[in-house]
Design a protein that fits this description.
Strand content of chain A: under 5%
Order of helices and strands of chain A: HHHHEEHHHHHHH
Radius of gyration of chain B: 19 Å
Oligomer: heterodimer
Order of helices and strands of chain B: HHHEEHHEHHHHEHHHH
Strand content of chain B: under 5%
Helix content of chain A: over 70%
Strand order of the largest sheet of chain A: 1-2
Mean pLDDT of chain B: 87
Low-confidence stretches of chain A: 306-310
Structural class of chain B: mainly alpha
Strand order of the largest sheet of chain B: 1-2
Distance between the termini of chain B: 20 Å
Largest sheet of chain A: 2 strands, antiparallel
Mean pLDDT of chain A: 87
Number of strands of chain A: 2
Number of helices of chain B: 13
Number of domains of chain B: 1
Number of strands of chain B: 4
Largest interface: A-B, 43 and 40 residues
Chain lengths: ~300, ~325
């Protein structure tokens, strides 16, 4: 097991981690500010990817597609918020789970209706295809590096937005006491719509970027959604910082587990048994991590402060 | 007799009558459809015990449903080629007797629920939803990456297992068996809910603090209900596998957990027979909408959304009148 392989897998883990962060950030904001558990977040990821695929095929430009993916998901998110989600804020979690589960069915079948069953393929833009040589002779995909870079940039931007701007102040205030901030004359409804659309745009961005790595198809959002839930539960629901750390943790555990657990078991078992057991356990690893975290700290690693509900 | 009881009675009499009519007119397909409703209704009733009465929103009951299904499938797999069911911790010959299979399924589901419940019930609200989901996903991924029992392809059950005195391979006999189990479970649930235990359980849902202040700790009550609920769902899973002659990892997936919740909500939360009505409506929608259009899930989604947004209390809430307390 060479250091180069380990370094490459760590980068892969980081890439998965930042993708998960883009998903988890929206989920955790929506839960923290509006108290809403949104299963349909994965559908926004899918909608973003489809918008991106459609526009980049039509225009031939991946970056226009990326913008379209974000914009499409944001518009879909804002509409969804105004038509459905607003009625759900006051409901209990059970109603929210079921209503957003229904939205998944609608979005998936609706998309299948429009685009058909065949997955779409997106090409990585010319400038970012191929690999680049990093320090120590490590070669790594340019595009995956771009994803890591964009993800970290978004994390910084979110931090700045929430901690340093007037909108961020209102978001934080809405998290602590929605009635008080409404009484101060802030249009809290509008803040909610903006937060939801922002989360949707990030999901759309993640979907578009990952769509070029694999393929764009109906149901692509669901595995990512569940991983993102694991992330926000580990990180502490409502906390963006928790989402970032949780996402990197989950990304690394999942990626490294898949690579190294089988070889670990090979040390004291025969090859095929070790591969089977190793890969079975690796696919469960993040859930084990989550169960351990919750058993020790039921509120997650970084419980959001200042919320009345958390 | 309240309106809810009358509606329940109509459903419980209507189901076997419909099956009988289908039987004499030789419509095996209809009988299997009715069996499907019965078995899924049984699973919904099991979940309702935890969700409706105990207020535990479990998004991971597919784990127990799938466990029951897999125990059946694995038993049939070994009985078919006459190999051992288990070698660790002790040697267990395989069996094609439903009663023995169910005993194993119930025991395993009970133990698993004890473990999952013990960890999950330390949390509440959205954390509880997520951690139950995570446990179910753990089992799901284990099942698809473990190749011995079919992995992603699932397991076929070539011969339906046997039950003393019942010709299980005949559709109508199998329906009656499932329906008898449904009635038995309903009776048990009714006794539980109206006993002191049920009062404590509903008290734990409404106000855990008050329950503790009169000297009953909520945690053991909820954990017991969670285990009972899981065992009922596992039994339903075992029957479901027998009905289909096939076990697939989908029975462990989070879609299954979602569907179980749908039965409960569609029928009416905390109503004894509600989930059965939910399952009946769901199977009807699946069959007839599915016959009309391939996109039936789109319309199912719309119906569900409308139910949640505008018809709180489900079908039983619409036709059965309000519950007395909440």
């Amino acid at each position: 097991m060479s250091t180069l392989l380990i370094a490459e897998q760590v980068l892969n883990g980081l890439q998965l981690g930042v993708t998960l962060f883009l998903m988890a950030a929206g989920l955790t904001l929506v839960f923290g500010v509006m108290g809403l558990i949104n299963l349909a977040h994965g559908s926004l990821y899918m909608i973003g990817a489809f918008c991106c695929a459609f526009v980049s095929v039509e225009t031939g430009s991946f970056f226009l597609g990326l913008l379209a993916g974000m914009a499409g998901a944001a518009v879909a998110g804002a509409l969804l918020e105004m038509v459905v989600m607003q009625r759900l804020y006051a409901r209990d979690h059970l109603d929210q789970v079921l209503a957003t589960f229904a939205l998944i069915l609608i979005a998936s079948e609706g998309t299948r209706w429009v685009f058909g069953d065949v997955p779409l393929f997106l090409d990585v833009p010319e400038a970012f295809s191929g690999t680049i040589e990093l320090i120590g002779g490590l070669t790594y995909s340019k595009y995956r590096l771009l994803i890591i870079f964009v993800g970290l940039l978004v994390a910084l931007g979110l931090y700045w937005l929430i901690a340093r701007t007037r909108l961020g102040m209102r978001i934080r205030a809405g998290e602590s006491d929605r009635e008080m901030i409404a009484a101060l004359g802030v249009n809290i409804r509008l803040v909610y719509t903006i937060v939801f659309a922002l989360g949707a745009a990030l999901a759309g961005l993640a979907g578009s970027m990952v769509g070029a790595l694999s393929s764009v198809q109906v149901g692509m959002g669901e595995p990512v959604l569940i991983l993102a839930f694991v992330v926000i539960v580990i990180g502490g629901i409502g906390s963006v910082k928790g989402a970032l750390i949780g996402a990197l943790l989950v990304g690394l555990v999942d990626t490294l587990g898949r690579v190294f657990l089988p070889s670990f078991f090979q040390l004291f078992m025969n090859n095929s048994d070790a591969t089977t057991l190793g890969s079975s356990l690796a696919s469960m690893a993040i859930y084990v991590v989550m169960a351990i975290v919750l058993a020790v700290r039921p509120q997650g690693l970084f419980p959001a402060t200042g919320t009345s509900s958390a | 007799m309240s309106r809810e009881s009358r509606v329940s009675l109509v459903v419980l009499v209507g189901l076997p009558v419909a099956a009988f009519i289908a039987h004499i007119s030789g419509e095996t397909y209809i009988i299997n459809l009715l069996t499907r409703m019965t078995v899924l209704g049984l699973a919904g009733i099991g979940l309702n015990f935890a969700l409706g009465y105990g207020g535990m929103v479990s998004f991971g009951h597919a784990a127990f449903f799938g466990l029951g299904a897999y125990v059946t499938g694995i038993a049939a797999f070994h009985a078919f080629d006459d190999s051992l069911f288990a070698t660790v911790p002790f040697e267990l010959a395989s069996t094609n007797q439903m009663l023995q299979i169910w005993l194993i399924a119930l025991l395993l589901a009970g133990l698993l629920a004890l473990l999952i419940g013990f960890i999950s019930l330390r949390t509440s609200g959205v954390y509880f939803i997520m951690i139950t989901l995570a446990f179910a996903q753990m089992l799901y991924y284990f099942a698809i990456s473990w190749p011995t029992y079919g992995g992603e392809d699932g397991l076929s059950i070539y011969l339906r297992n046997e039950f003393p005195g019942v010709q299980t391979d005949k559709a109508f006999s199998f329906f009656l068996l499932c329906f008898a189990i449904l009635l038995l479970v309903l009776l048990l649930c009714w006794r539980f809910v109206n006993a002191r235990f049920g009062a404590a359980l509903q008290g734990a849902r409404m106000n855990a603090l008050r329950l503790s202040s009169i000297g009953i700790a909520p945690f053991p009550v909820k954990l017991t209900a969670f285990v009972i609920s899981a065992m009922i769902v596992a039994l339903a899973g075992a029957l479901f596998a027998e009905l289909n002659g096939f076990v697939s990892p989908t029975s462990l997936s989070w879609h299954m957990s979602g569907e179980l919740i749908i039965f409960v909500i569609l029928g009416g939360v905390g109503r004894l027979v509600g989930p059965l009505i939910g399952a009946i409506v769901f199977v009807l929608l699946e069959t007839y909408l599915g016959g009309l259009t391939d996109r039936w899930q789109f319309f199912l989604g719309l119906i569900l959304l409308a139910t949640v947004l505008f018809a709180n209390g489900g079908i039983m809430g619409l036709i059965g009148g309000r519950t007395r307390h909440d």
